[in-house]
Write a structure and sequence with these properties.
Elements (H helix, E strand, L loop, with lengths): L6 H12 L8 E10 L5 E9 L8 H14 L5 E8 H16 L7
Parallel strand pairs: 2-3
Antiparallel strand pairs: 1-2
Helix pairs in contact: 1-2
């Protein structure tokens, strides 16, 4: 019987992947979230934030390496790999901040 991996095991594997020099300046950042997917199964979401839109041609290679890295750690949860751009993430953060700062209307 094999024991399920602890979060630090797959997170450490992913951290090593994130630090690969092979990505050069293509990958700006990474975000990882865990929870249940729409089918109520445990899952991991890895958001790869690319520097620019033109770099999307490398996403299949990146997706494959992310999936391989997490699976290699013994993780059995479903892994979703999503892509965004640095610009889109910054815009989303600005919109969230504006929404927080907007005056709230009192319910009638």
């Amino acid at each position: 019987m094999t024991r399920p991996p602890t979060a630090p095991e797959w997170r450490e594997s992913l951290r090593k992947l994130q630090q690969k020099e092979a990505w050069g300046s293509v990958v700006a950042d990474w975000k990882v979230e865990t929870g249940n997917d729409p089918f109520d199964d445990p899952a991991i979401w890895v958001w790869v934030i690319l520097e620019e839109m033109q770099e999307f041609e490398q996403r299949d290679k990146i997706r494959g390496q992310v999936l391989e890295t997490i699976a290699g750690s013994g993780e059995s949860r479903w892994v979703y790999v999503r892509f965004s751009t640095k610009e889109a993430e910054e815009l989303e953060a600005e919109e969230r901040q504006e929404a927080l700062e907007a005056p709230q209307e009192a319910p009638v």
